[in-house]
Amino acid sequence: MDQEIQKDKEQLRDDILVASLKLFAEKGYFNTSLTDIAELSGVKNSAGIYKHFKNKQEIAQALYLWVIDRLSVSIDDIRRRSRKSSEQLREIVDLWFRLTDEAPEVMQFLLVLNVKEFLPEEQRIMATPPFVKIIKVLQNGIKDGEIKAIDGQHAYCHFFGIIENTLRQVLTGSLKKKASYYESDAWQSAWATIVKN
What we know:
197 residues; mainly alpha; Arc Repressor Mutant, subunit A; Tetracycline Repressor, domain 2; 2 domains; disordered N terminus
């Protein structure tokens, strides 16, 4: 019986996080109320949320850590599967485009929302583990002669500037087709900016 109650508590907490992610992506953090989150997550009222989180900021922090952790695990998997930096980067780009089509709220949270506005104490996104790992992929590509000899952060700006901008345009509706439609062109343009000739 206690196990069932615990599972229900965990499920409800997850439901609150999923509802918050959807609402933050659609309405923005500041335009989302605890009442909105309660309604979408199936909690009877906003008071029920306080059994799981102290406030909306704590929900956002838990969500931020959850998204960063999942992305970090995915990048670790990619790095284990592929040896060359170009292959790893291609798989990361595939992941980001797939997430944009299949889980747009996650990518909206990462690429469109200004997380620092509502989570000022959290480290900047580029200092989080998944992005540090991406810089390492780029640095390894530079070291192995696959990527031209520039700083890893500079390489990130060139390469992911194109990728992230394309995805932002899809997420905000400026580009009308699914992200997958633009992936090949974005990859070729991004790779051309850093590949060693």
